[in-house]
Amino acid sequence: MKSLVGLVLILAVIGGILFVLNPDMDDFSLYMQNRASAQASQNNTGALSKLASGIAGSVSGLVAKAYTRKDYLVFSTFTMGKASAPSDQYLGMAKLFIKIK
Fold first, then answer.
1. DSSP-derived secondary structure for the chain
2. Which of 91, 77, 82, 84 is nearest to 99 (CA)?
3. Do 24 and 76 touch, CB atoms closer than 8 A?
4. Cα–Cα distances in Å, from 56 out to 24, 31, 46, 89?
5. Which pLDDT tens digit goes with each residue over 35-71?
């Protein structure tokens, strides 16, 4: 019985942490900006790299607004396109994002 209470307590703490760290649209927008900036800087070198990464970051922040978010309390999904046939889909959990489609 004591181990069951401990297990429930551990699961409650983990669930609470995931609830607090559940990403929102601002977190996803920041993720997309950072991702685009990193890709732009890899493709270009020198002064052009800084300009390209800045532009890519701004544009991808706007693109992130085209995604829809479904909140599941401890994680969220971000979908581009129709729900029945999404073109891109990301899973967000604990401020981390994983592309799932």
1. -HHHHHHHHHHHHHHHHHHHT---HHHHHHHHHHHHHHHHHHH--THHHHHHHHHHHHHHHHHHTTSEEEE-SS-EEEEEE-SSSEEEEEEEETTEEEE--
2. 91
3. yes
4. 21, 12, 16, 20
5. 877 777 676 665 555 655 566 556 655 666 788 999 9
